[in-house]
Specification:
30% of the residues lie in helices and 22% in strands. By secondary structure, the protein is of the alpha/beta class. The chain has 2 domains: 118 residues, 2-Layer Sandwich (Ribulose 1,5 Bisphosphate Carboxylase/Oxygenase); 83 residues, Ribosomal protein L1/L10, domain II (Rossmann fold, 3-Layer(aba) Sandwich).
């Protein structure tokens, strides 16, 4: 018989099979964030209704800015014209380049997890869609990553801009903060996000848009959030 660790046994006692409030869930999450990780991520898994009344599947893809940020640190690359390189660097971009950055992308040297591109460089970047697309790195005007406002785009990514994109089964996965966030800040981020999603519900979807919500820490227990959505 497999031997279970003391932590595993303690967590088993704190599981909850029913739905609980977000306030109670955050309290329990904080109690079970006891791994050796420095600062666990507090994550949501949300399933939305994608069945449209006239047939076909609805796909959500948008961005929102959490009031207290997500606590995630990104390595931000900026692809721009040579004359804008210093502007990007001075506003906090980690990697900046023009044709030299395109060469690195062509060689699949991807050492960043967010990419901003100026509109003038998108024509050159388009052919690398097969490299960037599967990694979720292809810039998109709707997501604020195709812009001439480099300062604004970089600041948004650094300060809580969160992408919302469902998979084929209607699942969304995203972070609403870190273990060191206060309970109030986590609750504010959660409630802001749920209100935002409700407003995104299209008229073609009948019935409830948000089907279920789970919250967990990086290596903790998952709790189902109650209440009507």
């Amino acid at each position: 018989m497999k031997k279970r660790s003391k932590r595993y046994k303690d967590l088993e006692k704190k599981k909850n099979k029913g739905k609980i409030s977000i306030e109670k869930a955050i309290e329990l999450i904080k109690q079970t964030c006891n791994t050796k990780l420095k600062n666990d991520s507090i994550d949501l898994s949300i399933r939305i209704n994608t069945k449209q009344s006239k047939g076909g599947e609805y796909n959500l893809r948008t961005v929102t800015k959490l009031p207290n940020g997500s606590g995630k640190k990104f390595s931000i690359a900026v692809l721009c014209e040579p004359e804008k390189i210093e502007e990007a660097k001075s506003n906090g971009a980690n990697i900046v380049g023009s044709d030299d950055l395109l060469e690195k992308i062509s060689s699949k040297k991807i050492n960043f997890n967010k990419l901003i591109c100026t509109p003038g460089m998108m024509g050159k970047l388009g052919k690398f869609g097969k490299i960037l697309g599967p990694k979720g790195l292809m810039p998109n005007p709707k997501l604020g990553t195709v812009s001439n406002n480099l300062k604004g785009s970089i600041n948004d990514l650094k300060n809580g801009l969160t992408e919302l994109k469902n998979d084929k089964d209607g699942n969304l996965a995203l972070s609403i903060g870190r273990k060191d966030f206060s309970n109030n800040k986590l609750e504010e981020n959660y409630k802001f996000l749920i209100d935002f999603l409700k407003k995104e519900k299209p008229d073609t979807i009948k019935g409830e848009f948000i089907k279920n919500i789970f919250i967990t820490s990086t290596m903790g227990i998952s709790y189902k959030i109650g209440g009507k959505n």
